[in-house]
């Protein structure tokens, strides 16, 4: 699997394309946060105090940006792009109930997984169970277990999105003309 991971250069090129896409679509992406519970990502709440930023990324913001990454990524051999988009859209869905449990919270990984699984089950019950609920559970589990190339790639997108968000919180704006294009 490691041979299929992004190289540093390809990640850099992807980031440039993604930032350009976000700049062009900023109004639409900001409006889409309405579809999901406006739950702030906990780790950023803590960091917010240090960077004095008014905007806090919600879980919906985070998952939407990752889905956009999967949508605009170049085709990669052996990767199902549609599956990547779906995984990106559900990978942190349980956090809308349990919150963003970070390592600094001191919650053991086993307990974090149990809480998130219970929250996911509750959400799927609200959906009435069935085929779509089972698909959501399957996609979430695939991501959690890093069980496919698609899940592995989405985990890479998760790290890239975190870096982009940290950059935005730290600077509040793009510092170069490249980021503005």
Automatic annotation (TrEMBL):
TM region(s), chain numbering: none
EC number(s) on file: 3.1.3.89
Superkingdom classification of source: Eukaryota
HD domain mapped to chain residues: 59-163
UniProt keyword list: Signal
Recorded catalytic activity of this chain's protein: a 2'-deoxyribonucleoside 5'-phosphate + H2O = a 2'-deoxyribonucleoside + phosphate
Functional summary from the UniProt entry: Catalyzes the dephosphorylation of the nucleoside 5'-monophosphates deoxyadenosine monophosphate (dAMP), deoxycytidine monophosphate (dCMP), deoxyguanosine monophosphate (dGMP) and deoxythymidine monophosphate (dTMP).
Protein name: 5'-deoxynucleotidase
């Amino acid at each position: 699997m490691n041979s299929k991971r992004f190289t540093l250069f390809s990640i850099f090129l992807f980031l440039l394309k993604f930032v350009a896409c976000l700049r062009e679509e900023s109004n639409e992406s900001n409006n889409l946060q309405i579809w999901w519970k406006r739950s702030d990502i906990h780790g950023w709440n803590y960091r917010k105090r240090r960077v004095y930023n008014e905007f806090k990324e919600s879980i919906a913001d985070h998952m939407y940006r990752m889905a956009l990454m999967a949508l605009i990524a170049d085709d990669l051999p052996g990767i199902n792009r549609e599956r990547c988009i779906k995984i990106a859209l559900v990978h942190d869905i349980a956090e809308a109930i349990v919150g963003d449990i970070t390592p600094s919270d001191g919650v053991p990984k086993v307990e974090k997984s149990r809480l998130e699984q219970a929250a996911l089950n509750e959400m799927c019950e609200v959906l009435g169970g069935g085929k779509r609920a089972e698909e959501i559970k399957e996609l979430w589990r695939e991501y959690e277990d890093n069980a496919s190339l698609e899940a592995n790639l989405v985990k890479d997108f998760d790290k890239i999105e975190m870096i982009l968000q940290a950059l935005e919180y730290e600077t509040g704006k793009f510092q170069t003309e490249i980021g503005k294009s």
